[in-house]
Each structure stands twice: as structure tokens, then as C-alpha cells.
């Protein structure tokens, strides 16, 4: 797939990246970038392998970048890399604001669909992500996009669509470098350039539950992890669900909802994910359940009709929190407001959904605990 970025001078350049042949190698392992005159300018070997027994992890971490005359520096990452500190966050800490991202991404709802998480990384890290996924329906691979902190151009096939490629082209802003040593700055959106709010911007934050408050919680499996859930039953209200000391708060109001057709729940998880990879998480998520039974909450859902205005927040023990809103027939929306405040508090506010809500999520990565 070819992705293009147009510079302010209107001189269009193409960034081409190629994967190892999937049909021959069953992998997505290296990335090449060429200049407009065909010269090889960067080569990167994947750091985080995903059951790729034919390859070894590089003996030394490769933080590979290349410079362009139209949009500054680009960094290279591949597939599973996007879930880990190295090389993804390491590149951002170096001041890289554009990431080239070829992938063979197997979608896993309700939290890690391709367009959902790749867009979330763009928002949470305040970078542009050029994401090119393979299309293979048998392996549940679809979903590519051009994501900036302010916009998203994407394609995601749904059931019945022909299995063919798509060309995505978008005009994107040239993101300037940020303070290399200022992690908070580099991973927080800039209020003057977007609709994100800061400090006191999300004024309607739900209050923490009073000592006498109680919620009927249950444990359900989502993404192979034991989430603590609370059902969302009322027309509007404030809910809290905790997994240990990590608590998620939700203030919501349904704008369209038939409780006889769709059931929703809010879940919290704090722990180490160990299925098909090992990584530490703190996650808050509102999800549509697959059926009308609580036991179906956390299962895969691709369509929804219910809409809500909401404010979700939690206090995370990490600076790396990736927000997403996924709606009916696999479309993503830009939250109205995002706030990162001192002490780890993160809030996401959104209203006027264009489609039924599938998932609203704050996905926190506890990179420092991955090896514990």
C-alpha cells in the first residue's frame, strides 16, 4: 500500500514501505523506505516478534529514522512494536512526530481492532501514524489509516466487502519537534492546536463515589483478561468500577437506547495481559455486550445502535494512555475533549455519536511493569 503526505509546498512525495512476502514467509518483519529518486534511505528490523520462529530479535534495539524535505523526521516501527515501549515510545522521546507503520494486524475486538488502537496511539502519543495493514479475511486482517492528533483517514472492511486493497491519501499537518527530554509534553496534545482540554477544561468530571455508594460488579473475560464489570442500566447516571485500587468513573446519558435489544457495561482491568504476548495494562472501557446476559459482556461485537453522551475518567499510574471511540460498522470518532492532568488523571468526553457505540476506551500501558 502507498501512503502519501503532502508538504506545505504542495510538492507531493511518496513514502513506500514493503513487507516480507506474506505468502512465502508468513510474517511482517522488516521495513524499507526509499527517497523520491529510488535510493534506500532507511532499513528497520522488527524488535517485537509475534510467534515468528524463523527470525531472531535484533541483537541491538534499532531506532531507525529518516529525514524528508517536506515533513521532517519519520520513524519506522512494525506491527507488534506498536504495543511496546521500544521502539515506539523510544522514538517519540527522541522527538519523532511521524511514524511509518506497516503491519499484519489481526483484529481483536472489543479493544484492539486495527483502526481503533492505531488511532488511539496517534491521539495518546500526539503523533502522526501512517498505518498500512494487510487484507486477509481468513486471518481477520483489515484496517489501514492515516492518523494525526487532529484527523483520521481510514478504511476498514466489513462483512461482505470485496477482499481488495485501498489507496488512502490525506493532507496532514507537519508536526514540529517537541522537547526531547520532556516526556509529558511529547505525549500530551497541545490545547492551542486541537479540541483537547487541559487542567480545568473538562469541568463536568464525575465525582468519586461516596463511602456509601455501591455498585453490583461481576468478573467477565475480555481480551482474555479478567475485567471487573458493572452494567449500565439507567437512562443516565454516574458509575464507578474498580479493579483493586484502579478505578474507572463514568458520567453518561443515553441519547438512543433500547434496553430490550442492547446491553452495555463498563469494565476495569489492572494487571498483566499474558495471552499472545505479555504486557502490563490499566484499562477503562465501555462496551456493548454480545447479548442481553451479563456473561456476554466483553465478547466481540461489530454493530450497535445505542448512543450515549459520556465522560470517562481514571487516575493512571502511567503517562501512556491511549483513548478511542469505536462506533457501528467499524468507524472511529475523535473525542470532543481529552484531558491529561497532574497526578495521572485522564478524562475523555464525547457526545453526538454518529453511530451506535461499540467501545469507548482509555487504554493505559504500564511499560515499566512488562518484565515483572
Would you write up a description of this structure?
Residues 1-27, 179-203 and 205-213 have low confidence and may be disordered. This protein is mostly beta strands and 372 residues long. It folds into two domains: 23-155, Carbon-nitrogen hydrolase (Nitrilase/N-carbamoyl-D-aminoacid amidohydrolase); 217-369, no CATH class. It has helices spanning 22-25, 85-93, 114-125, 183-186, and strands at residues 2-6, 12-16, 30-34, 40-45, 65-68, 72-76, 98-103, 128-133, 144-147, 152-155, 168-170, 217-222, 225-231, 236-243, 246-256, 264-273, 279-288, 307-315, 321-327, 331-332, 337-340, 345-350, 357-365. The longest helix has 12 residues, at 114-125. The chain is 8% helix and 38% strand. A hairpin with a 4-residue loop joins β9 and β10. The protein has a seven-stranded antiparallel sheet with strand order 12-13-16-17-23-19-20. Strands 5-6-7-8-9-10 form a six-stranded mixed sheet, with helices on one face. Strands 14-15-18-22-21 form a five-stranded antiparallel sheet, with no helix packed on it.
List the topology elements.
Layout: E1 2-6, E2 12-16, H1 22-25, E3 30-34, E4 40-45, E5 65-68, E6 72-76, H2 85-93, E7 98-103, H3 114-125, E8 128-133, E9 144-147, E10 152-155, E11 168-170, H4 183-186, E12 217-222, E13 225-231, E14 236-243, E15 246-256, E16 264-273, E17 279-288, E18 307-315, E19 321-327, E20 331-332, E21 337-340, E22 345-350, E23 357-365
Parallel strand pairs: 1-11, 6-7, 7-8
Antiparallel strand pairs: 1-2, 3-4, 5-6, 8-9, 9-10, 12-13, 13-16, 14-15, 15-18, 16-17, 17-23, 18-22, 19-20, 19-23, 21-22
Domain CN hydrolase: 1-174
Protein name: Biotinidase
Enzyme class: hydrolase
Amino acid at each position: 500500500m502507498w501512503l502519501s503526505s503532502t508538504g506545505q509546498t504542495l510538492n507531493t512525495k511518496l513514502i513506500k514501505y514493503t513487507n516480507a512476502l506474506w505468502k512465502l514467509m508468513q510474517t511482517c518483519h522488516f521495513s524499507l523506505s526509499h527517497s523520491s529518486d529510488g535510493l534506500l534511505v532507511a532499513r528497520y528490523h522488527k524488535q517485537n516478534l509475534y510467534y515468528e520462529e524463523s527470525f531472531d530479535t535484533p541483537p541491538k534495539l534499532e531506532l531507525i529514522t529518516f529525514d524528508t524535505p517536506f515533513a521532517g523526521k519519520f520513524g519506522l516501527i512494525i506491527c507488534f512494536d506498536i504495543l511496546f515501549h521500544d521502539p515506539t515510545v523510544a522514538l517519540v522521546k527522541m522527538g519523532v512526530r511521524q511514524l511509518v507503520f506497516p503491519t499484519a494486524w489481526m483484529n481483536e475486538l472489543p479493544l484492539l481492532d486495527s483502526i481503533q488502537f492505531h488511532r488511539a496511539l496517534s491521539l495518546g502519543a500526539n503523533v502522526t501514524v501512517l498505518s498500512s495493514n494487510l487484507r486477509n479475511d481468513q486471518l481477520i486482517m483489515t484496517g489501514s489509516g492515516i492518523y494525526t492528533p487532529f484527523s483520521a483517514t481510514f478504511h476498514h472492511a466489513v462483512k461482505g466487502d470485496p477482499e481488495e486493497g485501498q489507496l488512502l491519501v490525506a493532507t496532514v499537518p507537519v508536526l514540529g519537534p517537541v522537547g526531547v527530554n520532556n516526556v509529558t509534553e511529547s505525549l500530551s496534545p497541545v490545547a492551542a492546536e486541537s479540541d483537547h482540554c487541559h487542567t480545568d477544561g473538562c469541568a463536568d468530571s464525575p465525582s468519586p463515589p461516596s463511602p456509601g455508594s455501591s455498585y453490583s460488579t461481576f468478573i467477565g473475560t475480555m481480551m482474555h483478561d479478567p475485567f471487573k464489570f458493572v452494567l449500565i442500566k439507567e437512562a443516565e447516571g454516574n458509575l464507578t468500577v474498580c479493579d483493586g485500587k484502579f478505578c474507572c468513573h463514568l458520567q453518561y446519558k443515553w441519547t438512543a437506547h433500547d434496553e430490550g435489544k442492547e446491553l452495555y457495561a463498563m469494565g476495569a482491568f489492572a494487571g498483566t495481559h499474558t495471552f499472545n504476548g505479555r504486557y502490563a495494562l490499566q484499562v477503562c472501557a465501555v462496551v456493548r455486550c454480545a447479548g442481553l446476559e451479563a456473561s456476554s459482556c466483553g465478547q466481540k461485537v461489530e454493530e450497535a445502535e445505542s448512543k450515549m453522551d459520556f465522560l470517562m475518567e481514571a487516575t493512571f499510574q502511567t503517562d501512556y494512555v491511549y483513548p478511542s471511540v469505536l462506533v457501528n460498522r467499524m468507524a472511529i470518532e475523535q473525542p470532543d475533549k481529552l484531558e491529561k492532568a497532574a497526578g495521572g488523571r485522564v478524562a475523555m468526553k464525547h457526545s453526538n455519536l454518529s453511530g451506535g457505540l461499540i467501545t469507548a476506551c482509555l487504554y493505559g500501558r504500564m511499560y515499566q511493569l512488562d518484565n515483572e
